[in-house]
Amino acid sequence: AFGANFIHFQLAGLAPQVFTATGASPQEFGLLMGLPLLACAIFSIPAGTLGDRFGVKPVVSAAFIVGLIGAIGRYLSEPTVGNYLLWMFFIGCALAGLNSNFIKILGVWLPPQRIGLAVGFYLAGIGLGQTAGMAMGASFETLGPPFALSIFMSGLSLVILIFLKTSPAGASRPESQPVLRNLMYVASKPAVWFGGISIFFMLGSYVALNGFLVNFLIEVKQVEAASASISSSVVAFSLMLGSLFASTLARLTGRSRVFLVLCGIISAASVYMVCTLPFSQATIVFLCLSGFFSGALLSYIFALPMLLSYIGPAYAGSAGGFLSTFQTGGGFVLPFLFPVMANGRLLDIFYLVVVGFALMALAALPVPELIKRK
């Protein structure tokens, strides 16, 4: 998870270099950031259902090989928007295979009461990868060396995956499931739909926030490039922390719906304060809050398949693919749509991020009250 997200969000930290090398417009850059997520939206359901049918390791390994090809192609090709669009799509295939099947691995290894924390650790790997990718942007003046580093990270991730144990020794594995029947069964469950719509707005707003944050701080808030790059990394780092503490915070709140609404309100209000206040240490605090609480909501929603008794390990791949399709679909659509709606104005893009985080909480309201049930 660290490696796959490192090579994706590396592009956000390299935004000034990408604009210089390719002459991309804000809309084109939003498309570049979102294209891996389009690949994820297209292939997550097939990857999840195939994982239920043939097993996790062969499906995810094939996806990571395609991602490695994308990393190599991005390094070798001429720096044009068209070339990078192609290779960023390849890079997204690794995300599709992993995001749709990780919950199935956790469900086989762990009891239900540990699933929430385990999802938090998985999302922490995502957050650390994004943080490292964005923070390193200021360390390079050109695109070649960081893109070479991404090849190493992608290859290392594939090697680690080869040694992954998908179930404990002697554990009974879920029976191989028919692909179409699984998909139809999962699609009949309203909780999966509402959870998916919620994280559609979550990831779309989060990617738009991270993708345009460096340029927003430089052009709108007059922050130096190095400080802007480091400041942007705190959002992903905070998402990691929010993922880890989500289950604890939800239990302290006492009600799922209250917890999810608070996550949305705090995330939206924090980004609004970033828009309206001059840059200062308070800006960093508000960026941290937006990442923390949006990550907490994402962790809770992604734990749903293993916490709902009518899904469980047998259908976890299909349900994970369903959720991943919504999540990454938002990550592709909104970072492209927001700049179009804002006519390229960075401040207006960030106001749309505020709206997106608010809608994230609204969509989560019908999600089952798991804490009360327990």
In short:
The protein is built from 16 helices and no strands.
Properties at a glance:
mainly alpha; 374 residues; single chain
Describe the structure.
With 374 residues, this protein is mostly helical. The chain has 16 helices and no strands. α1 (2-13) packs parallel to α6 (115-135), α6 crosses α12 (281-302) and α10 packs across α12 (281-302). The longest helix is centred in the middle third of the chain and has 30 residues, at 190-219. The two termini are 30 Å apart.
Order of helices and strands: HHHHHHHHHHHHHHHH
How many β-strand stretches? 0
- What's the pLDDT, averaged over the residues? 83
Number of helices: 16
Which regions have little confidence, pLDDT < 50, spanning 5+ residues? none
Q: Kindly provide the radius of gyration, computed on alpha-carbon positions and rounded to a whole number of angstroms.
A: 19 Å
Helix percent band? over 70%
Morphology call = globular
Q: Main beta sheet: strand number and arrangement?
A: none
Q: How much of the residues is beta strand, in percent?
A: under 5%
The class by helix and strand makeup works out as mainly alpha
Distance N to C terminus: 30 Å
Oligomer: single chain
